[in-house]
Amino acid sequence: MSRIGRKPITLPQSIKLEVKDSEVFVSGKTGVLKRKILEGISVEVDGNVVYVKRANDDKKTKGYHGLMRTLIANMVEGIDKGFEKKLEIVGIGYRAEMQGNDLIFYLGYSHPIRFPLPEGISAQVEKQTLITIKGIDKELVGTVAAKIRALRKPDVYKNKGIKYAGEILRKKAGKSGK
User: Fold this and answer.
1) Of 59, 80, 101, which residue is a domain's last?
2) Taking the CB of residue 15, how many other CB atoms lie within 10 A of it?
3) Is residue 160 included in any domain, yes or no?
4) Contact predicate 85/164, CB 8 Å
């Protein structure tokens, strides 16, 4: 039995979880999230405790068991508290600003880069070099943060670019010319 899959998920008071037509709906004060239940997995709600069970011991179903439990737990945590990722912009002249629902980046290119935020994601720019991305869907928050980081990945020779807050970059030595 999967150690993660057999752990029960305890629902906070303000969150409601429903199972309809092989889909899980988690709703609360911040919004509603839904996810399709993977094949061979069943979700049972008993009061404020949720159990994820599997139908058989196939290798594929065993893998889905822990995954589905984690996905549901992330949905519950996202509705309850939300998720956030912080990005730092490093480099002379590199900066960002909010303009409506878009992020505008100045990253050393000949033009500014406009990054429209998807629905359900909010961003906050502090000090022009620190960006906080917030949302209730953990997968979407991580995807948006990765796409923003990909606009100008950290350079290993100059340590310039967009990096996650707390990310440690190892600087490489350049050529040793005469």
Assistant:
1) 80
2) 18
3) yes
4) yes
Q: Are 118 and 140 in contact (CB under 8 A)?
A: yes
**Which two structure tokens, joined as six digits, stand for 92?**
């002379």
Cα-based distances in Å from 60 to 35, 64, 65, 66, 70: 19, 6, 9, 11, 16
Q: Which of 171, 172, 161 is nearest to 93 (CA)?
A: 161
pLDDT tens digits for range 23-42:
899 988 888 889 998 888 88
Neighbours of 88 (CB within 10 A): 17
Residue 59: which pLDDT band, with cuts at 50, 70 and 90? confident
Residue 45 sits in a domain of what CATH number?
3.90.930.12
Structural domain count of the chain = 2
Per DSSP (E only), the strands in 21-158 are: 23-27, 32-36, 41-46, 49-54, 83-90, 95-99, 102-106, 113-116, 121-126, 130-135
pTM of the model: 0.84
User: pLDDT band for position 178 (50/70/90)?
Assistant: low
Q: At what angle do helices 138-151 and 59-80 cross, to 10 degrees?
A: 90
Answer whether 66's CB lies under 8 Å from 55's CB: no
The residue assigned the tokens 């796409």 is 147
Q: Which residues pair with 90 in a beta bridge?
A: 161
What's the mean pLDDT in 132-136?
92
